[in-house]
Design goal:
36% of the residues lie in helices and 19% in strands. It is an alpha/beta fold. The chain folds into three domains: 66 residues, no CATH class; 161 residues, D-Maltodextrin-Binding Protein, domain 2 (3-Layer(aba) Sandwich), CATH 3.40.190.150; 109 residues, D-Maltodextrin-Binding Protein, domain 2 (3-Layer(aba) Sandwich). Strands 5-4-6-13-7 form a five-stranded mixed beta sheet. A hairpin with a 5-residue loop joins strand 2 and strand 3. Helix 3 packs across helix 10. The N and C termini lie far apart (50 Å).
Length: 381
């Protein structure tokens, strides 16, 4: 068998984090690209002792106690509740509309946290303002653990730009980050003008400011920044059409109201599977294995480090310590729960190591703030 880098990072690493005293030795002589493990490894809930050698023989060996049965895994993953929490459903605020990536993630995590920690959730969508309209409701809720906010890197960019005063790494507590992914540019599969990215560039050069792309409406968001970077690097111009709701963006492309779409692959997988959209360009430092036939922006001459989309869950600062610890443990266990692992795999979230605990999330946020502020200064935003 062969094991690709994406599987090693996105599948094995989260499981290894669960290990306590068991000895682990990993030797990587060569990372292969023909991956036999890719479609199945995420189903394995737990690894105890692991000796991994990837070389010319592509040997993968486990001890006889390597795997737990599903029932055993579930039993170990159950999280013990505090004595008095929660006694009612927790409200999970989603700052975007129903059906989009954030909504899908929130509902998948709510389901899995219910399985591993016996928590009930009420998911409430509050779209608007590029994700900022939901923040006042979140901040008005008492810091008692009964209100959770799902949010993405747009909250970080909004803080870096000064659109919101709340610092997600200081005024909120990120209990976990559970999705980190790359973005792509898509066209309609039946649009014969664009067989590949080179066709897009040629069209844009011949028709300046006429090539339209559906994007989010928030100035300074990751999506807008990346498209501005592409324009600057390649010397072409796009007319970015703002849509706040994901369904509107997708409908605009399928309905031929725009030429292209900027989005993450997991959010439009149903359209990809139905052959209604096709990826033309990937914003990442290498070609992910699932999109090995799609060039990266770097390959096409845009030499910049791409920003990623990340999504996580927050509570307000001041939540009692025992409740916060419970929610942190519940989120970590839910990330490993079988149905959530399947959800992340379906959304291509296994291609990058997507889990961060509170400390890792704070580091991720602080790093992103620095990058956004640097980009805003360069772009004059």
């Amino acid at each position: 068998m062969a094991l690709c880098r994406e599987c090693f990072v996105g599948i094995l690493t989260p499981r290894v984090k669960l290990l306590r005293s068991d000895a682990i030795m990993i030797t990587l002589d060569k990372i292969t690209t023909n991956c036999l493990f890719n479609e199945q490894a995420w189903r394995l809930p737990f690894f105890k002792k692991l000796v991994l050698i990837v070389g010319s023989s592509a040997l993968l060996a486990f001890s006889t106690s390597a795997f737990l049965l599903p029932g055993e895994a579930s039993a170990q993953m159950k999280v013990e509740k505090p004595a008095d929490f929660p006694t009612r459903p927790i409200t999970m605020i989603v700052p975007y509309g129903a059906g989009g990536g954030s909504d899908q993630l929130a509902r998948a995590m709510a389901k899995s946290m219910g399985i591993v920690a016996d928590i009930q959730f009420q998911v409430v969508n509050k779209p608007g303002g590029g994700g900022t309209s939901a923040i006042p409701d979140f901040m008005l809720a008492p810091p008692d653990g009964y209100t959770m906010l799902e949010h993405i890197d747009n909250a970080v960019s909004a803080f870096a730009k000064g659109d919101i005063k709340e610092n997600p790494a200081r005024d909120w507590v990120p209990i976990c980050t559970t999705q980190i992914t790359f973005s792509q540019v898509y066209s309609r599969s039946d649009d014969k003008r664009f067989s590949d990215w080179d066709d897009v560039v040629a069209y844009a050069e011949k028709n300046p400011n006429k090539l339209t792309i559906a994007n989010v409406g928030k100035v300074g968001s990751m999506e807008v920044i990346v498209m501005n970077q592409v324009e600057g690097a390649l010397g072409i111009k796009f007319k970015q059409i703002a849509f706040d709701k994901p369904a509107e963006r997708y409908g605009a492309l399928i309905g031929k109201q725009v030429d292209l779409l900027f989005e993450q692959p997991g959010d439009v997988r149903s359209f990809l599977d139905a052959n209604k959209m096709k990826p033309l360009l990937t914003f990442f430092d290498k070609r992910p294995s699932a999109f090995s036939d799609v060039p990266t922006h770097i390959e096409k001459g845009a030499k910049f480090k791409p920003l990623t989309r990340f999504r996580g869950f927050y509570v307000r600062k001041g939540v009692p310590r025992d409740r916060l610890k419970f929610l942190q443990e519940a989120c970590a266990a839910a990330f490993e729960e079988e149905s959530y692992a399947a959800f992340n795999n379906k959304k291509y979230m296994h291609l990058i190591d997507s889990y961060r605990d509170t400390a890792g999330s704070v580091k991720l946020i602080k790093g992103a703030v620095k990058i956004y502020r640097k980009m805003y200064k360069q772009l004059g935003i």
